[in-house]
Each structure stands twice: as structure tokens, then as C-alpha cells.
Amino acid sequence: AVFLNSSRIFSNPSGCVPREFPDGVVCVCNSTHCDDIEPLEGFIAPGTAVVYRTSLQGARMDKSSVKQTPKPSVFTAELDASTVFQEILGFGGAFTDSTGINLNSLRKQTQDLLMQQYFGPSGSEYTLGRVPIAATDFSLRIYTYDDGFGEDFNMEHFALANDDFQFKIPYIKQAIDLQKSNGGLKLIGAPWTPPFWMKTDDTFKGGAMLKGEQDGPYYASYAQYFVKFFESYLVESIPFWGVTIQNEAADWHTIFPTATYARNFIKNHLSPALRNSEAAKNLKIMGLDDQRVYLPQWTDEFAEDKEALSVLDGISIHWYADHQQPASVLTDVHDKHPEKFLLYTEACNGSPTSGTKGVSLGNYTSGESYAHSIIENLNNWVSGWMDWNMALNTQGGYSWFMNFVDSPIIVETNKNEFFKQPMYYVMAHFSKFLKPGSRVINLNLPPLPEKVEALGAIMVDGKRYVTILNRNDVENVTVSLHEKGVDKVYTTVSVPAHSLVTVIWTKY
Ligand SMILES: *[C@@H]1O[C@H](CO)[C@@H](O)[C@H](O)[C@H]1NC(C)=O
Ligand SMILES: *[C@@H]1O[C@H](CO)[C@@H](O)[C@H](O)[C@H]1NC(C)=O
Ligand SMILES: *[C@@H]1O[C@H](CO)[C@@H](O)[C@H](O)[C@H]1NC(C)=O
């Protein structure tokens, strides 16, 4: 196949079966075939660096190697392992009902191949998974785990929904299995709404709050609702790592989690309830779980209560309004509260704020927007980055709210095949190599053209890692990478217009 906007032939060393759509090219997978990402071997001989490329011209995590040289070319970029920044928590996506609904529409062999794309050794090896506590806007219907029985303060009628058993639990278990020998999967729970009887308007739509006083029975009961969720999932052999107290305040089912609400609820109810439960006592508690534009004020207000601040582990952030607030606010918050981790827990293209609506098949710009966000945020103390739905249909659903968006993998529900988009490969440039425990380090860059940016890190086993993104239309950037204090070892790579390049080499 000839690639869009280019006379070059689509490269497919890893077996990508390209299919062209008006917006770009996807790699097609079915029950018997899916392209693998070539693994990085444990040992890289000194004198050599491994390179992975994804590009508009058609590279999709294509692996090659390059000889290191004693002399640089024109520009040098210096990796400085003596300046160590944050530890990586991981990368991942969300086990939404919609992800499971779309997986269920495929035959078993195809489902298995799709799950391997995200969690297997030949895929992007995600290490984080977000699990909605009951329904999201990407569910078949709205539900919570304790509705229809009146005011059930003791959670006697709490029960997981059929939706959990059909759409989430089987795939979460499969993901845990696939990641077992590979560092494990950290799961994060997040509710969209409390049970409806706890809300001031008794309905599921946004705008409401929890009923009654901050120290009243609704608040205590809502904390027990969280505990019941984690206990019920543990019964299914699914342990969790973290929890955010409330997904973003939006137009669908929600409550408005002001900083005052958050700090009182966390301090007086959620933290004590979790710590009293065997299933939940070690969970990391995160606040905000909403747009970067709210981050500075939310954090300042939350931090006015020192006791609440002491039981908060991290702050989770979504990407949808990033253009309204510079990434430097992340560094400001980090500098004020260095002990709190910052984690991006939701992002997608195709939402009303991102320029497109719904699915844009093969769109390379959508991939670039992921790479730009990850590099910029990780260079401002963010510890990890999570996508939203892992699989949607060609319309961008299922979504009862008809809030259709895009996803790195799109399922052709009636054809037993799925498409891997550029966003999928972009995630892999980071998730496959920056495992939990990797460290972002300083990378001193030469003056680079606009829209060229880079990230430097040390992998868990000590390998050196640099990813460079070039979003220019024409400029082809060539950089010689070297490590501070290591003489006469340069890795020279070119990063042509609209390409993403990851370079990995052994520590000297
Ligand atoms: C799956 O895709 C491969 C590669 O395009 C093709 O050769 C094979 O026939 C397809 N299998 C099915 C069952 O359609
Ligand atoms: C590709 O996606 C970007 C947003 O990620 C959007 O601005 C652009 O219009 C899309 N291109 C096409 C051809 O739809
Ligand atoms: C980019 O520059 C390098 C080094 O000069 C060259 O080898 C490569 O062919 C160029 N790539 C493109 C796409 O122009």
C-alpha cells in the first residue's frame, strides 16, 4: 500500500497490514494475524544503540540499530544521569464497559490478540489500568452498586452489576495474567457518581452533592461504598493499587468534588474506612482527577487542611483542557508539594475540545498529540500517563451519553477485526520501556526547531532512554546523544519531519 501524502511504501517489518482511510493508515488485525512490536533484548552490546521509529511516512514502532561513534555530528544532546527527577509509576488505559462491549463483539482468538496488544510482551506492556467504580458515560446504561432499595446506609444491598462480570472482570483478569511476569498491573478505581439516593437531587445527572452534613450518615455510607467495591473485586481475585475520590465534574452522572468536599471526605471518611479494610488498607488516595486548569487552585485549597494533605498520596489530572493552562503549573505544584505524585489518569482525542469528533481512522496527528502531552508532562514532574477507552467501535462508542471519542484501537464489530491507530504505537514508545521504577533524568538539548521536544530517562535495568518527537512539516533534525561523564560515545539519530524516535543503549 502506498502511504497517504507520501510516495514511500509503507514499511511493515513487524507485519503491519496497512489499510488506508481518508484521515490516515491503520494496521489491521484479525483472529489469525496481528503485527507484533519487536522486543528490546535484555542485553545491548556496547557500541550499539537500539532505535524504534513511528512516523507519518508509515513506520510503526519499527526497530533498528545504530552504531555509536567516538565523535558527534552537528548537534549534541547530553543525558545527565546525575540529575534525577521523578520515578515513573506507569502507563495504561481504562477498563470501561465500552472497552469490554467491543471486545465481546470479537471472537475469542481475536479478543486474545487485542488484549496482547496492550498487556503482552509483543505489545505495549501497559502497567496501569483505570477501573470505573460502576457506570461511566461509556457504559450501556447508568448504574451504581446500591440503587433501588431506598436509603441503604449499611450497604446491605451492595452488589456488583452484571456489567462488571460481562465487560470488565474477565478482561482485567486476563490483563493481570499477561502482565504477571512483567512487573504487574496497578489498578486504580474511580467513581462517576455515588448511589442516587445519596445525592441532593436524587437523580444521576451532574450538579448535585452528597446529602446532609459533612460528618453525616451519607458521607460515612459513601466511604463504605468504596470499601465494598474493593472487597467485591478482591473476591474476584482483583486487587487494587489506588483510588481517586471522584472522576471529573461533567455533564453526565457526577457530583461536584470541590477541594473542600475532597479534603473533608478523604480525611474524615474515605481514608479511615479504607485503612480499616484488609482489601483496601494500602490503597494510594488521589484527589482532583480533573483538568489541569483546576490544578493550582484545587491544590492550594486542599493544602489548607494539613491533616487532609497528610493522607493524600497523589493528584490525578486529565488532559482535556491542557491548552488553557501551561504545563509549568505541574512543576509549581510539585515544588510546593514534592511528596505528592502527579499522574495523568485520562486522555483521548475526538472529544469536543480536541478538534475532531469521534473516530478519525489512522490520524497521525492524534498520535503526535499523545506524544507531545506525555513528553511535556513528564518533563514537568508527572509520573505516568493513562489513556481513556482501550477499544471503541468505528462510531467511537458505545456511549449512552453519545459522547463519541477516539481510541488507539478501533473494533470492527461485525467483521471480527480491529485497527491499531498511530496513537497505539505512540503509547508503546513510552509504556514498553518506562516501567514502574524508571526515572526521568535531565536531558540538555541543543537549540531545536519549534515543535521538536525530547524526554530522557533511565530504565529499571539501567539502560539509557531518550525519545525525540518532531512535529514539523519539513525540518529533519539530526542529534548526537551522549551521556555526561562518558567520553567518546555518541549515538547519532535523525528525526525527520513528523516522526517519533526512541533510542536505547546500555549504561557505560
Ligand atoms: C487475517 O489477516 C491476514 C493478513 O492480512 C490474512 O492473510 C488472513 O487471511 C486473515 N484471516 C482471516 C481469518 O480473515
Ligand atoms: C486528525 O486529528 C486532529 C486532532 O488530533 C485533528 O485536528 C485533525 O483535524 C484530524 N485530521 C483529519 C484529517 O481528520
Ligand atoms: C534526515 O537526515 C539524515 C541525516 O542527514 C538523512 O540520512 C536522512 O535520509 C534524512 N531523512 C529524510 C526523511 O530526509
Approximately what portion of the residues adopt beta-strand conformation? 25-35%
Annotation, overall tally of beta strands: 22
Cofactors and ligands: 2-acetamido-2-deoxy-beta-D-glucopyranose
**Structural class per helix/strand content?**
alpha/beta
State the helical fraction.
10-25%
Count of DSSP helices?
Answer: 10
Globally, the shape reads globular
Strand order of the largest sheet: 4-3-22-19-18-17-5-20-21
- Average pLDDT for all residues: 93
Radius of gyration: 23 Å
Sequence stretches where pLDDT stays below 50 over 5 or more residues? 1-9
> Distance N terminus to C terminus?
42 Å
Please summarize the sheet with the most strands: 9 strands, mixed
List the helices and strands and how they pair.
Layout: E1 18-21, E2 24-29, E3 48-55, E4 62-67, E5 75-87, E6 90-94, H1 97-104, H2 108-119, E7 128-133, H3 162-179, E8 186-191, H4 217-235, E9 242-244, H5 259-275, E10 284-291, H6 295-303, H7 306-310, E11 314-318, H8 328-336, E12 341-346, H9 364-378, E13 382-389, E14 392-393, E15 409-412, E16 417-420, H10 422-431, E17 439-444, E18 452-458, E19 464-470, E20 477-483, E21 491-495, E22 499-505
Parallel strand pairs: 5-20, 6-7, 6-13, 7-8, 8-9, 9-10, 10-11, 11-12, 12-13, 14-15
Antiparallel strand pairs: 1-2, 2-16, 3-4, 3-22, 5-17, 15-16, 17-18, 18-19, 19-22, 20-21
Helix pairs in contact: 1-3, 2-3, 4-5, 5-6, 9-10
One 2-acetamido-2-deoxy-beta-D-glucopyranose binds near residues 30, 31 and 33.
